[in-house]
Structure formats: structure tokens, C-alpha cells
């Protein structure tokens, strides 16, 4: 009791010096009597009541931040049978009529925006019960038969959902915050969260509801497409691939470029493990001043994923179910010669059939569906969110599919009168995958007069073994089975001690474990082409890898506003992370019984011959330890300063250089809060922010940190005649290897105009990466290997990002809101090292290896192709090239690789993401688009498949005998094949209909939503190859490689969502 | 309540302290630290033999050395074949002595590969000595003599690496044991005497082979050190301008005389290269190869040179199109340079025409036939690719001669189009004779013998030929002819040589003898350089570099290797 008094006094003291504020902030457990006093002090209201009627001695636990007086009172008196009326300066408290305080009553009032504008059509529902109502044209509602203690859930499109306790009143005023209003939105940052208005760095937040869904993508990454300016998401081809992400250009050349994913505070997560339906929000820390708190691993980008947590449903179950059914339709196949055309042009042997190999490879009966069940249950002290999902996904290629199961329990408990909070999160997911061995690139090459089937053969397939360039991919796929199962398991406990005597102070300890296990296996039939060719009756393999991560973090946080003007948010803590990876594998061949497949692997005769393989490996255990701190300070809602520091050590580095320092400072100025701007009514917010931060990168192999001995891949014969593996040094250990660091400047502007109708953010950045972790050529002789990891070289990225959003139409029945983002980036290698090390990439596909189209060296601009300059065709149709010295040569001995030039670039000048939401009564329509403008694509379809007579009997494009007829010579890697790749794609077009059903179904079904989505309906582009959206991450992208071909497809999805 | 808080704070503090005491040391599992590695006698030996598995890559598997030594000379080529093998990259340009020293890395080029593998080899030898010097060998029952022998073996191996580098590139940065500091490039002279020193120092500590035809396991013995030293002296004139043929001859005589161990010529060449060559009498040093253990395929000669469907030829009695010998895919690029021009006439150049230089009665000049149990005959594939014993086993074409039986011709011309021009540009799929010398293959029914042949690196015939040339140079032509004829007679039935060397032989006959005895053994360039023919000679589609182009006798260093250190300047003539 004493402690509580102390807390109260402290709180009172702290707030007493504050300015007159009508809003209320308080966390902790107090008696009602004391709470009233605090409310009086903070808000300036005076309570009028009869002490006998009000349970002043009862304790209440409050957790309020900037709460309105209505919210405050409903928090204090919810379920206490107390009614209130507010007039000018007084609040009159009355005991409600019913003696139990649980009688049904009516609650009526108005729902409005912050400025008083009524919100029309907002839905109000009692959580766990049926019978919601909708506000009328004046924003008014009347809810009959509510009970004291009921929780109301208020929703309206374009506004943040709100939960509040019901209370007896005829003139409630419920204020909804516009979703677009960024200022008060809570942004998750490293080790805590901040109001958007206090953020000084570049952070993009996306709520779970804004993710692009139903596009048939394999994982979450695709759902972010077009949502985050500057973020490039690689194409996912097929349901088992995972997307590559890159933000603001390349962050490193040789070390890793992949983002750090933090799931519910656990760094190092796997984005594939998360069920998108479980996501509450995704926050992307784009610049180093935001990411520096994650030090080491934050160089590329930090993606913070927050999963849904339980809400207080007052003990009632809140159940929702959704289903998504979808079909993929292929379109836009390259136009190869048909069998008849192939015969007509006498390209190769005529086997007499007519086969469209591309079409044969497509699974036209694909069907995918997903079912998701989420159950919320909560009381004041315990809140549980649990979910379960099942998903089946079919790819477009034959035998490509995936089955997923998953479940999550996020439980939060409140103990010891608010002193202690415990959260237990358990996440499980498994993906059972079946891989296709279909190669669409090969389908293009195959002779169309040959049939994949042969009814007279044992297998029904026409298997031929005498041609390695033209083989039956349909039979290869059917006679080869391969698949695997990914399992993610992540239990985590978060314990939080609220040190109540000091307002806003708490200590949080997290202990988490995550495991990703992959089990793969496969069997190649004895009738498979390769089995026949290698004279082996079948081949079976099993492989598995298991990755363990242990994470322990503890930190103090302090959030408070002192003296009304000094808002402080600070953390101080440590983080420990351990990473282990284990793998085993085995393979055996030559089985006598094909039908058993892989399930008796010991019976293959290669085992007896000593040719079967078996392996196990445990990677070097990696450890990371860090101490960190952060302070955000806001003065008078105008001036913000934020600083972070992290000192981190990694076991990956040389013993002398394990520890690194990462820090950031950023400043913000909320100009709108200056008195001289108060008068500008149309301006809601104007903030300038800027910062500098240093982040690190340790994404490279852990085997370089010490001298050790390991086995060579080969055996040698010992003096006693035994064959044993030889052992020796493996790496060029660099004892001084240290951190790669990235320094980044970020300058930004946030604004919101016309009452939130138009808002946006502008960001400009410059980042320089130095002491790059680089695999450098070193003199062999003293070194065992010709490369060593060193800290050399530097590179830079610069660019800008613009985000604009607005509610273009905000009518009574019709609304239209739109978000647009644009970004541009430029990356350049400043120096690789002083030894002129170079890296090549962009290998162009054969036949006849045309070469590599990229080279990286000192001064290289990322994205430039390094290819020959085309100088027309000669009379014989041979390619001519213009050398560096201007002379023109044709194919032959006289061109050298250094006659190549830097031509074109695969980095788009501008990347655009644009989304629209239209709403008419219960209908809504969403359009998500993305576009890349001003970049080049190297078209290998035209190059490899487009010249008649150069690929033997392999099939060619129809263009080879049309548009390209005059070309006779061997293809050469040159800019003739560069094309402008600018495109616009619609990621998803969703039409939805919401039906409140409470009225009709009594206590059962509350709401139903049906939606229909078309994903990627068409591509607008002038590019003539298959898909202009080529890989543009890393330095070796830009090649539309026909060997990686996967059909373009559109998705048709039907979605159903039920809320019980 | 209070105690709760205290407990919580204490707990938090304890956790923090625990965290502080966590280290950021890595823990090794599959890799072992040196102090836990040496646990048995075997482990010590396994450490000792690590440079040997590297030597296997360098001397018997990687094709870079073959490319540089053969494609620049007059026996092998990699022509454009219609729409195949069209990249005209390094393999193509070597023919014209047009060396790519592109400052932009061009993948794993031959120049780079040869430099790196050999310098790595040196490093591996010294590293093994350095590591083992810290081990208490007595504990594992090894003696001082063992240790001295090991050091001598590795030192000799390092000397061979350096010798090949000197031959290819000239002077090198010289590293001895415990080399931890980067070194400047030494002159060719310094490198020469450094190698000489390594060999003469290590030779006495090496073991001498005492059993004629005793099993070779790849261990370095005295005769190897002596032969490498002989090679060094033999080419001293090329390397440092000082003729040392006398020294080479002395060593050769001693090796033949058994001073460095007991060796003799094999009476049948297939004993030297065949399936049971671990007991060859002739081999001085070889890289062991064994099915399922260390499968060494001899410079990937099969893969790069055989026609695509060659493996069907090897079905033997298991005939049937769909099978084919495993691990035997091939991509039909390399072949012998042609002896006949596009019209079918013999080339008249002194050099080149390798297939025609073999006497028609030479047992090697037969179609490859596998007889079973590791016995075989013939070193070539030529003419119609139909297995004479199993006519169903035939090799079909797939380009110009698609689905017809492929007939390999000793010509490189677009015969399918009636073309008669013969250049590196005019190949087709059946152009050029193919050699199967290293790692001969069994037929499918004896697939378990696949990869059993060891890869000979040094053999006694070379010592004979070296001695012969030394005699030739000293004016003892008959002595030269006798030595060569002594080797030659095994290639003819009943030892009757229809065309022996005589006292009237000229240097071109001598070069021809080198060509046919050591065809494809990666030494042709060195021999041509020694005779001044490398830059001045003419053969098939190759024009002489001409006078003043002698700088081409050594290769440029690959740009990447030069760039790796400023202590490795480029060779003269190549600076760009």
C-alpha cells in the first residue's frame, strides 16, 4: 500500500508541473478514490459524487496514454456500476439503477473524428455478441441492451479500430483516429515503440490488413510488393521459391545483403515462417539511424514483424475464419516454332508428333486454397490470441506443390497488480514441399515433333538417353520424385517487470529459441533417363539440416513525460544470440526393386561398392553479444533528439577485432507545433528530420575466425594401403578481420495537410559502406588459398524516396483513397581494394557460353552491363562489334574481353508502388500496382533462341524465321539484345463485399466478407521477352535468362471471411 | 510485494551478469583445432599426405597445364565445330599464341589456374612441414628418419611446382619453409638455383626404390628428385640461357643405371598407362587412382575431347543404345591437329601432323579395344566409330552427321558442306582424331575397373629421351638413335621397327620422336621452346610469331595474379 501511495505521489508530482491537459495518461494499479484525484490533477475536471455510492476503495489497473476523459472514466468505472455526466468543468458520478450493476442499458452517442466531423457508417459491435449497429448520417448511434462491462468494437474503413467499455449514456462521444493520420500512429522501433510524431528516422509501417493477399505467392515477401519505397522484391517463381529483398541498393558486395528480420523482438527470424494472417504490423527500419540499435546485422535493412496479440474480450470468444481459393492461369508463352513450322523449316529430325512442350509442362488443374482460423480470448489479466491455418498451394509446373500447416499461440498475462507481465508466444509452421524437375527453359529447346509419351514403354513415357541437350522433361519429372519438409518452431517467453514506483520504468527479459529443420528426400526411378545413362537402377537420397537459434535479451525501458514538456523514452540492455547448424545426408543408388522407391535406402548396391555417400556436418557455433542503449527525447512536442549506441561482439571475426561500435544520432523538428504555424489551418503536420547512423554486417561464413584443420574432399593411399582422407589447413585466417560498417545520412520531411486528406513523407539518403568484408586476392605461396577475407574497399548508395497518400474522395457513401510511392537509388563501388580485384557476374546462358555481362571493379556503377557494342550486321548476317578503339570487328579471334564497354543499366530510374482503395457502401475495391521505369533488360530469348541454324536441332523462336531472318552468324553478347524493360504490373485487383449479419443470425455470425481477387491480370510493357521484372538485386542482375523461365500467370482468388 | 521486486531486480541483474560472462568465442565441431587433431598415428599421416591430394589436382586432374603446354603447340587444338565450341576463348586463342591477360577477371583461366595451383602447392608443402614440426612425432612411433623423409618428399614436390612455374612464367617469388611474409618476384636465375638447391638437399633423405615393379603409391622417392633435377638442367638453356646438357645427361645415365632406385622400361606401353600400372616398372612418379577412392580422370581429356555419344561405344556385350558407360559424358571439343588438309593431302610442315607421324604398324595407332580384365589395345579413336567386337556399339553424330555413324577424320574442314578450307574455324563434329591415353576405360560389364589406372607423371622413357637428346646435341647421333630405338621397339609386333632412328636423323626427327612418345603428356611446348621452334615454327593453321617474339616463350601472368600483389610484375613484352 505504501508503495502504491508513493507511486501515486510520484505520478502526481510529475504531472502537477505539467500544463493544463484534458487528456489522461497513467499506468498502474490504484484505488478508485486515488485515481479520481489524479484525474482531477491531470485534466482539471472536478468530480461531484456521493462517496457512499461510489466504491472508492476498490482497486483498478489502468494503462492509459493520452486517453480522452470518456475513455478514462470507462476504464476506471467499467463494470463498477457507476454512471457519469460531464459538463463544463465537473464530472457528476451516479450509481446506476440496477443493484447488481449488470442490468441491460442503452448507450447512445456520436462517433466522430478528432475535429468533430461525424463518422458515417461506422460499425459498433459488442465483442462476443451479435447485434451491431451502424452510425447514421450524423454519426449517431444507439445501442440497446448492452451490459455494464461489455466491450465495444468500433470499426470504420479508413479509421483505426477502437475498443472501449460500454457505459450508460445518451451522448457518448467516441473519437476515431483516421488511419491515414500518421502522427499518432504507433511505430515499432528496435526495443520499443514510438508515436509516429516522435520518430526521427525513416521507418515505414504497414498494418497486417494492408498486405497484398491472394496473389498466389509462396510467402510474405510478395505481400510487401509496392508497399515500401526503395524495397526491391525479387520475383518468386513457383510456390517453393523465396524472394530476395534489397533496400536502397546493394549494402555489400560479397557479404550478405539480406534483411534482418525481427519477429516479435527476436532478431534473425525467417520471413518464410510467418503466416501473413497472423501479422499485426510490419515496420521497416530503412535508414541506419533507425537500424543502428540492431548494430551488427542491420546493414541491409531491418524488418520488424509484430504478430497479433490477444485483446480483452471480457471472457468472450472472438472467432474468425477465412478461406481463400485460387487458380493460376498461365499466359504469354514465348512463341516457338510449332511442330509443323519446325518440319517446314527442316530444323531437325521429324519424329512425327506435335508437341507443345511448354504447355505440356504446365499444371492446368492447379488449385490452391488456404483456411485460417483465429480465436481471441481475453480478460483483464489474461489475453490469448491463437490461430491455426492449413494451406495447399499448387505451382504452375507439373508436380510442384506445397502443403502448409501452422499454428500460433500468443498469450499475455498480467500479474501482481500490474507489476509483472508475462508473454508466451509459440509459433509452429511446417511446409511440405514437392519439387518439380520441370525446366521451362528446356521446354523451349525441345524438338516439337517428338512426343513425351510412348504408350508401348514400361512407364508410358518416351525416354531417350542419347541427347543431353534435348531430353524428355516430362518423363524426367514424372520419373523423379523430390521434396522436403520445412519445419519452424519458435517458443519464446517475454517477462516484463513494471517497476511501478518509477513511472514508466520497466525491465523486460526475453528468452527465445527458434529451430528450422529441413528434411529432404527423393527418388529417381530406374527408368529415368539419367539412371539409364549412368547404368544405375534408381537413386535415393535423404538430407536434413537443422538450424538452432537461441536469443536472450534483457533491457530496462523508461517512458515518461516530465514536466509536461520533456518526453523521454529510453532503453538500456543486452542481447545474446547463438547460432548452430547441423546437417546430415545420405545417398545410395542401384536398387533392384523400383517400387519401394527411397524407403529402403540401404539396399542399393552402390553401398557395397563404396560409392554411396553419407555425410554429417555441424557448423561453427556463432555467438553474438551486444550491449545497447537508446534515448529519445522530445521537448515541447517540437524538438526531438534520438541517440542509440550498441557495442557488439561476434565470434565470426578475428580474435583481435571481434567488437564493434554502432551508433546513431537523429534530430527532428515538429514545425507545426511552433506558434507561428499554429494559424495555418490546412497544415496538420510538418516535420523535418535527419540523422546519421552506423550499422554493421557480419553476414559471411563463420569458418574464418580461427586456425583449424579440416578434411580435403579426397582420400590418399596410406603406407598400409588404406585409403584415408587427408587433413590440412583450410582457410587463410585473418586475425584482424573486423566489421564491415555502413554510415548513412538520412534527411526526411513528414507532412499532413487538409485534415489528413493528403499526407506524405520524403526521404533522401546517402550511405557509404567501408571496410567491406571482401574476398580479396592474396599472394598464394605464403597463403594456402588465393583469396582471403579482408576489410577493404568501399561503396556508396544514394537515392530518394517519396510517399504520398490521400483520401481523394471522402463522401458519405463513397470514399477513394490512394497511396503512391516513388523511389530511386544509385550505387557505386568506390574502391574494391588496392589490388584491383574484380568480380564478374551475369552469366549468359548457353549453348556456347556467350560470356558474362557484368563486371565489378573500382568505380563500377551497380547495374551497368559490361558487354560488346553492337555495330550492325555484315552482309552475311554476322554480328559486328565496335571495339574500344572504334574499330569494327566481326566474330572471330580479334575481339578480346576487354573490348567490352559499359552500356545500359538494369537499375530502374524510378520504381513506383501505387495502391487505391475505393469504397461504396458495403463494397470495396482495392488496386495494387507496381512499376519500374527506365531500365534495361538483357533478352536471352532473342539471343539464344532467335537465330535460325545456330542451335542445331533445338527449337527456335518463330522470330528466327521472321524478324531475325537476316541474322546468320553466331550470337554475340552485345547491346543489340538490351531492351528497355519499363513496365507496369497490377499486383492485385480485389473486389470485396462486407455484410454485417448480426441482425439476422442472433448470437452466431456477426460479419461476412466475400472478395474476389485477380492477381497480375496483365503486364504493360514494351519489352519483347518473357518478363521484364528480372532480378535487379545484387550486382549481376538484369538478365532475362531463358533457362530460368517460368510462365507468367494471373491468379483468380475467391476469399471468404467470417467473424463469429 | 517488496521481496518480489527485489527478487525481480536481482534476477534481472543476474541475467545481465550471466550475459556479460558469455563470450563471443566460436566453437568448432566438424573442423578441428590443431591441438585436438593429432590423436593417432593415422591422423599424423593424414596431415602429411594433404599436399599429395593437392598434387593430384595439379599434376593429374586439372586441365590448365595440358591446355598451356599442348594447345600452344603442334599436336592438339580446340576448333570451332559448326555451331558448337564457338566461344573462341582461351583454348582457341592459345593456338595463335594470343594470350588473354584481360585486366577484368575472366573466370578460372588456364594461366591463373596453373599459377595458383602450383603456388598453392608450394604453400601446402611448407604448411604441412610447419604443422608437423610442432607435433611430437615420437609419441606416435615415428622416427627422426621418417621426419627427414617427409620433409624431403614435400621439398621435392615443392621443387617440381617451382620448376613448372619457372617453365611457364619465368622467375617466381621464392618461399621456403615458414614463409609468412610476402616476397618479391625473383629472377629466373635465382629461381633456377633455388630449385636446384631444394632438390639436391632433399634427394639424400628420400627413399630409394628397391623392388623393380614394386607398387607405386605416389610417394616421392629418390628417382623423382633426380628426374626433376634432370628436367631442370635439360632446359636450363631455355630458362637462364646457360646450357647444362652435360649435367642432365649425367643424371639421366645414373637414373637409367639404377643409382636412384630400380626401374626399367615397360615392355608394353599399356603397362605404363593401363589398369594395373601401379606395378609398372617404368613409372617414377604417378598419382594413384582407384575406383570409389580417388577417381582421377587425367586432365579431363575424356570429357573435353570425346564425341558426345562416345559412351555407347563402351557398352560392349551389354549393347543397347540406352545405356552407355557411366561417368563418361563428353562434349566433343578437343582433338589432334589434322595431318591432312581439307582436300585430303598431307601437310608438309616439319612440325605437327601428329597422327600421321605414328607409323601405321605402331601398335598405338589402333582403334581402342578393351579386351577384358584390364587388357586393352590402341591409343586412338579414328574412322567409323563402330566397336569392332560389338557392332551394335556405335557412336552416332548429332550435328552435321545427325543420327549417322560418326566417322572421325584426320582433317578439320567443313566436309559436310563440301568445304576444303582447314582452320580453327572450320571444324565439324567428326573433325580430328581423339586420343585415349590417360585413364583408359573398360567396357560396361567391367565398370568396376573405371578410374583404376593411375596417372603417370614421370616415367623412365623421358629419361631415355632426355639422354638421347643430350647425346644428339653433343654430336653422338647414333647414340641418340640407339636410345630412342630401344624405347621404340615395344611399339611394333615382335620388336621389328619398320622405321628406326638412324645416325642421319635430324632435329625434326628427334622432335617427332618426342611428339609421338609423349603425345598429350603436357610437355610439347617445352620441347619446342628448347629447340627455338615455339615462336619460329609453323604447323597447320599456326603461323610463326616471328623473330623478336621470343618473349612469348614464357606466358604472361594472369592479370588477377599480378594484381594480387604489387610484388609480382608482369613479364616483359606483355605489359599493357
Radius of gyration of chain B: 27 Å
Radius of gyration of chain A (CA) equals 32 Å
Uncertain residue ranges of chain A: 1-21
Number of strands of chain B: 10
Give the helix proportion of chain B (percent range): 25-40%
In whole angstroms, how far apart are the ends of chain A?
Answer: 42 Å
Q: Which structural class is indicated by helix and strand composition of chain A?
A: mainly beta
Q: Work out the helix count of chain A.
A: 13
**pLDDT < 50 stretches of chain B:** none
State the assembly state of the protein chains.
heterodimer
Report the sheet with the most strands of chain A, covering strand number, pairing sense and barrel closure: 22 strands, antiparallel, barrel
Strand content of chain B: 5-15%
Fraction of residues of chain A in helices? Answer: under 10%
The count of DSSP E runs of length 2 or more, i.e. the number of strands of chain A, is 59
Task: Jot down its keywords.
heterodimer, A: 1060 residues, mainly beta, 22-stranded antiparallel β-barrel, five-stranded mixed β-sheet, 13 helices, 59 strands, globular, disordered N terminus, B: 576 residues, mainly alpha, two-stranded antiparallel sheet, 38% helix
Amino acid at each position: 500500500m505504501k508503495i502504491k501511495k508513493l507511486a501515486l505521489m510520484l505520478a502526481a508530482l510529475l504531472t502537477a508541473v505539467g500544463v493544463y491537459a484534458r487528456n489522461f495518461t497513467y499506468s498502474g494499479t490504484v484505488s478508485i478514490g486515488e485515481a479520481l484525484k489524479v484525474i482531477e490533477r491531470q485534466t482539471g475536471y472536478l468530480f461531484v459524487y456521493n462517496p457512499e455510492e461510489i466504491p472508492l476503495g476498490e482497486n483498478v489497473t489502468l494503462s492509459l496514454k493520452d486517453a480522452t476523459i470518456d475513455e478514462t472514466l470507462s476504464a476506471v468505472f467499467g463494470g463498477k456500476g457507476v454512471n457519469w455526466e460531464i459538463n463544463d468543468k465537473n464530472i457528476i458520478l451516479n450509481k446506476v439503477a440496477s443493484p447488481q450493476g449488470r442490468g441491460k442499458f442503452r448507450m447512445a452517442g456520436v462517433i466522430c473524428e478528432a475535429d468533430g466531423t461525424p463518422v458515417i457508417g461506422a460499425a459498433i459491435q459488442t465483442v462476443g455478441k451479435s447485434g451491431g449497429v451502424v452510425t447514421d448520417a450524423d454519426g449517431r448511434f444507439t445501442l440497446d441492451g448492452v451490459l455494464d462491462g461489455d466491450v465495444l468494437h468500433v470499426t470504420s474503413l479508413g479509421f483505426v479500430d477502437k475498443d472501449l467499455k460500454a457505459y450508460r449514456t445518451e451522448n457518448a462521444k467516441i473519437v476515431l483516429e483516421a488511419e491515414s493520420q500518421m502522427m499518432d500512429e504507433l511505430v515499432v522501433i528496435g526495443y520499443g515503440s514510438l508515436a509516429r510524431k516522435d520518430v526521427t528516422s525513416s521507418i515505414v509501417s504497414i498494418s497486417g490488413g494492408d498486405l497484398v493477399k491472394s496473389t498466389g505467392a509462396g510467402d510474405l515477401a510478395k505481400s510487401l510488393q509496392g508497399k515500401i519505397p526503395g524495397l526491391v522484391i525479387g520475383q518468386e517463381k513457383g510456390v517453393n521459391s523465396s524472394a530476395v529483398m534489397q533496400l536502397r541498393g546493394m549494402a555489400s558486395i560479397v557479404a550478405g545483403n539480406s534483411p534482418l528480420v525481427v519477429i516479435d523482438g527476436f532478431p534473425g527470424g525467417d520471413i518464410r515462417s510467418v503466416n501473413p494472417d497472423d501479422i499485426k504490423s510490419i515496420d521497416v527500419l530503412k535508414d541506419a539511424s533507425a537500424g543502428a540499435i540492431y548494430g551488427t546485422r542491420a546493414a541491409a535493412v531491418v524488418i520488424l514483424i509484430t504478430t497479433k496479440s490477444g485483446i480483452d474480450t471480457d471472457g468472450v470468444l472472438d472467432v474468425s475464419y477465412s478461406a481463400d481459393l485460387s487458380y493460376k492461369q498461365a499466359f504469354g508463352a514465348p512463341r516457338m516454332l510449332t511442330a509443323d513450322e519446325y518440319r517446314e523449316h527442316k530444323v531437325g529430325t521429324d519424329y512425327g508428333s506435335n508437341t507443345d512442350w511448354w504447355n505440356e509442362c504446365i499444371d492446368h488443374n492447379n488449385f490452391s486454397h488456404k483456411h485460417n482460423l483465429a480465436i481471441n480470448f481475453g480478460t483483464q489479466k489474461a489475453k490469448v490470441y491463437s490461430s491455426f491455418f492449413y494451406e495447399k498451394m499448387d505451382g504452375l509446373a507439373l508436380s510442384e506443390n506445397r502443403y502448409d500447416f501452422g499454428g500460433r499461440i500468443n498469450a499475455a498475462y498480467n500479474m501482481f497488480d500490474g507489476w509483472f507481465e508475462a508473454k508466451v508466444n509459440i509459433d509452429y509452421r511446417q511446409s511440405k514441399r514437392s519439387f518439380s524437375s520441370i525446366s521451362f527453359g528446356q521446354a523451349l529447346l525441345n524438338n516439337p515433333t517428338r512426343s513425351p509419351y510412348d504408350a508401348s514403354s514400361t512407364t508410358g513415357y518416351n525416354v531417350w538417353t542419347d541427347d543431353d541437350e534435348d531430353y524428355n522433361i516430362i518423363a524426367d519429372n514424372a520419373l523423379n520424385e523430390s521434396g522436403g519438409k520445412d519445419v519452424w518452431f519458435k517458443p519464446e517467453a517475454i517477462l516484463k517487470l513494471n517497476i511501478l514506483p518509477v513511472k514508466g520504468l520497466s525491465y523486460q527479459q526475453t528468452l527465445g529459441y527458434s529451430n528450422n529443420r529441413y528434411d529432404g528426400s527423393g527418388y529417381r526411378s530406374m527408368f529415368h533417363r539419367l539412371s539409364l545413362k549412368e547404368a544405375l537402377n534408381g537413386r535415393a537420397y535423404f538430407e536434413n539440416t537443422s538450424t538452432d537459434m537461441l536469443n536472450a535479451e534483457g533491457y530496462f525501458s523508461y517512458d515518461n513525460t516530465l514536466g509536461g514538456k520533456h518526453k523521454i523514452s529510453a532503453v538500456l540492455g543486452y542481447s545474446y544470440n547463438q547460432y548452430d547448424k547441423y546437417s546430415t545426408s545420405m545417398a545410395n543408388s542401384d536398387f533392384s526393386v523400383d517400387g519401394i522407391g527411397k524407403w529402403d535406402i540401404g539396399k542399393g548396391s552402390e553401398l557395397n561398392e563404396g560409392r554411396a555417400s553419407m555425410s554429417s556436418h555441424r557448423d561453427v557455433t556463432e555467438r553474438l553479444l551486444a550491449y545497447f542503449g537508446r534515448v529519445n527525447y522530445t521537448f515541447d512536442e517540437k524538438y526531438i533528439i534520438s541517440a542509440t549506441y550498441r557495442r557488439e561482439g561476434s565470434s565470426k571475426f578475428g580474435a583481435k577485432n571481434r567488437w564493434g561500435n554502432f551508433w546513431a544520432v537523429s534530430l527532428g523538428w515538429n514545425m507545426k507545433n511552433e506558434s507561428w504555424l499554429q494559424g495555418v489551418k490546412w497544415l496538420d503536420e510538418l516535420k523535418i528530420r535527419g540523422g546519421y547512423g552506423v550499422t554493421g554486417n557480419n553476414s559471411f561464413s563463420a569458418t574464418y575466425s580461427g586456425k583449424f584443420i579440416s578434411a580435403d574432399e579426397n582420400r590418399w593411399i596410406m603406407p598400409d594401403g588404406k585409403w584415408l582422407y587427408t587433413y590440412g589447413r583450410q582457410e587463410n585466417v585473418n586475425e584482424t578481420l573486423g566489421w564491415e560498417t555502413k554510415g548513412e545520412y538520412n534527411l526526411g520531411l513528414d507532412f499532413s495537410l487538409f485534415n489528413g486528406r493528403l499526407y506524405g513523407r520524403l526521404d533522401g539518403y546517402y550511405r557509404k559502406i567501408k571496410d567491406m568484408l571482401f574476398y580479396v586476392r592474396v599472394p598464394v605461396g605464403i597463403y594456402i588459398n588465393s583469396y582471403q577475407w579482408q576489410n577493404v574497399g568501399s561503396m556508396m548508395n544514394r537515392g530518394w524516396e517519396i510517399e504520398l497518400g490521400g483520401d481523394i474522395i471522402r463522401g458519405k457513401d463513397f470514399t477513394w483513397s490512394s497511396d503512391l510511392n516513388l523511389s530511386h537509388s544509385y550505387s557505386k563501388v568506390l574502391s574494391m581494394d588496392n589490388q584491383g580485384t574484380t568480380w564478374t557476374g551475369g552469366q549468359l546462358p548457353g549453348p556456347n557460353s556467350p560470356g558474362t555481362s557484368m563486371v565489378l571493379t573500382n568505380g563500377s556503377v551497380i547495374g551497368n552491363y559490361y558487354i560488346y557494342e553492337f555495330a550492325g550486321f555484315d552482309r552475311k548476317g554476322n554480328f559486328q562489334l565496335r571495339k574500344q578503339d572504334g574499330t569494327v570487328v566481326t566474330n572471330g579471334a580479334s575481339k578480346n574481353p576487354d573490348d567490352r564497354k559499359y552500356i545500359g543499366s538494369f537499375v530502374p530510374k524510378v520504381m513506383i508502388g501505387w495502391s487505391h482503395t475505393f469504397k461504396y457502401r458495403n463494397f470495396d475495391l482495392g488496386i495494387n500496382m507496381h512499376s519500374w521505369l527506365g531500365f534495361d533488360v538483357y533478352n536471352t530469348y532473342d539471343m539464344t533462341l532467335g537465330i535460325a541454324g545456330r542451335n542445331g536441332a533445338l527449337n527456335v523462336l518463330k522470330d528466327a524465321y521472321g524478324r531475325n531472318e537476316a541474322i546468320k552468324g553466331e550470337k554475340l553478347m552485345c547491346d543489340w539484345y538490351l531492351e528497355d524493360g519499363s513496365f507496369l504490373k497490377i499486383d492485385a485487383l480485389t473486389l470485396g463485399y462486407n455484410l454485417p449479419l448480426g441482425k439476422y443470425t442472433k448470437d452466431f455470425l456477426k460479419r461476412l466478407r466475400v472478395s474476389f481477387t485477380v492477381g497480375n491480370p496483365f503486364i504493360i510493357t514494351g519489352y519483347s521477352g518473357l518478363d521484364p521484372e528480372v532480378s535487379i538485386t545484387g550486382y549481376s542482375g538484369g538478365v532475362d535468362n531463358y533457362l530460368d523461365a517460368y510462365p507468367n500467370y494471373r491468379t483468380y482468388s475467391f476469399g471468404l471471411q467470417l467473424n463469429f | 510485494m517488496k521481496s518480489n521486486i527485489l527478487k525481480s531486480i536481482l534476477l534481472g541483474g543476474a541475467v545481465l551478469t550471466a550475459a556479460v560472462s558469455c563470450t563471443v568465442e566460436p566453437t568448432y565441431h566438424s573442423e578441428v583445432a590443431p591441438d585436438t587433431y593429432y590423436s593417432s598415428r593415422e591422423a599424423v599421416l593424414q596431415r602429411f599426405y594433404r599436399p599429395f591430394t593437392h598434387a593430384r589436382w595439379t599434376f593429374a586432374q586439372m586441365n590448365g597445364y595440358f591446355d598451356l603446354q599442348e594447345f600452344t603447340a603442334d599436336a592438339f587444338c580446340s576448333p570451332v565445330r559448326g555451331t558448337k565450341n564457338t566461344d573462341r576463348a582461351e583454348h582457341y586463342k592459345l593456338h595463335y599464341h594470343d594470350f588473354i591477360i584481360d585486366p577484368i577477371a575472366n573466370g578460372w583461366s588456364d594461366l591463373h589456374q596453373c599459377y595458383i595451383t602450383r603456388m598453392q602447392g608450394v604453400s601446402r608443402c611448407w604448411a604441412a612441414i610447419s604443422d608437423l614440426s610442432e607435433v611430437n612425432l615420437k609419441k606416435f612411433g615415428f622416427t627422426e628418419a621418417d621426419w627427414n623423409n617427409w620433409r624431403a618428399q614435400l621439398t621435392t614436390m615443392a621443387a617440381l611446382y617451382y620448376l613448372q612455374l619457372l617453365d611457364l612464367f619465368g622467375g617466381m617469388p621464392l618461399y621456403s619453409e615458414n614463409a609468412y611474409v610476402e616476397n618479391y618476384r625473383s629472377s629466373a636465375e635465382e629461381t633456377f638455383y633455388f630449385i636446384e638447391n631444394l632438390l639436391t638437399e632433399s634427394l639424400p633423405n628420400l627413399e630409394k626404390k628397391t623392388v623393380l615393379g614394386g607398387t607405386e603409391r605416389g610417394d616421392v622417392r629418390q628417382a623423382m628428385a633426380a628426374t626433376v633435377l634432370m628436367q631442370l638442367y635439360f632446359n636450363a638453356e631455355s630458362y637462364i640461357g646457360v646450357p647444362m646438357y652435360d649435367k642432365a645427361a649425367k643424371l639421366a645415365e645414373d637414373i637409367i643405371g639404377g643409382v636412384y632406385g630400380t626401374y626399367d622400361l615397360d615392355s608394353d606401353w599399356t603397362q605404363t598407362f593401363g589398369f594395373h600400372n601401379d606395378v609398372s616398372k617404368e613409372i617414377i612418379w604417378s598419382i594413384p587412382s582407384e575406383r570409389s577412392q580417388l577417381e582421377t580422370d587425367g586432365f579431363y581429356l575424356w570429357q573435353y575431347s570425346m564425341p558426345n555419344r562416345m559412351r555407347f561405344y563402351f557398352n560392349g556385350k551389354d549393347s543397347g543404345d540406352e545405356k552407355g558407360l557411366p561417368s563418361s559424358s563428353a562434349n566433343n571439343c578437343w582433338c589432334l591437329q589434322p595431318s591432312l588438309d581439307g582436300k585430303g593431302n598431307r601437310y608438309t610442315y616439319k612440325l605437327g601432323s601428329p597422327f600421321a607421324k605414328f607409323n601405321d604398324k605402331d601398335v598405338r595407332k589402333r582403334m581402342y579395344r578393351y579386351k577384358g580384365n584390364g587388357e586393352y589395345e590402341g591409343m586412338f579413336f579414328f574412322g567409323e566409330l563402330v566397336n569392332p567386337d560389338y557392332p551394335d556399339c556405335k557412336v552416332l553424330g548429332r550435328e552435321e552427321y545427325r543420327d549417322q555413324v560418326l566417322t572421325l577424320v584426320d582433317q578439320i574442314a567443313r566436309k559436310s558442306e563440301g568445304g576444303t578450307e582447314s582452320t580453327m574455324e572450320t571444324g565439324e563434329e567428326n573433325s580430328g582424331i581423339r586420343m585415349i591415353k590417360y585413364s583408359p576405360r573398360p567396357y560396361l560389364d567391367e565398370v568396376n575397373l573405371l578410374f583404376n589406372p593411375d596417372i603417370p607423371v614421370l616415367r623412365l622413357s623421358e629419361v631415355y629421351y632426355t639422354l638421347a637428346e643430350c647425346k644428339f646435341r653433343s654430336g653422338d647421333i647414333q647414340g641418340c638413335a640407339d636410345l630412342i630405338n630401344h624405347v621404340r621397339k615395344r611399339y611394333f609386333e615382335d620388336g621389328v621397327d619398320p622405321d628406326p632412328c638412324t645416325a642421319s636423323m635430324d632435329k625434326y626427327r628427334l622432335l617427332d620422336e618426342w611428339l609421338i612418345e609423349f603425345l598429350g603428356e603436357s610437355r610439347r611446348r617445352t620441347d619446342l621452346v628448347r629447340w627455338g621452334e615455339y615462336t619460329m615454327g609453323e604447323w597447320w593453321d599456326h603461323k610463326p610469331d616471328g623473330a623478336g617474339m621470343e618473349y612469348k616463350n614464357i606466358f604472361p601472368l594472369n592479370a588477377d595474379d599480378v594484381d594480387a600483389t604489387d610484388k609480382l610484375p608482369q613479364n616483359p613484352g606483355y605489359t599493357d
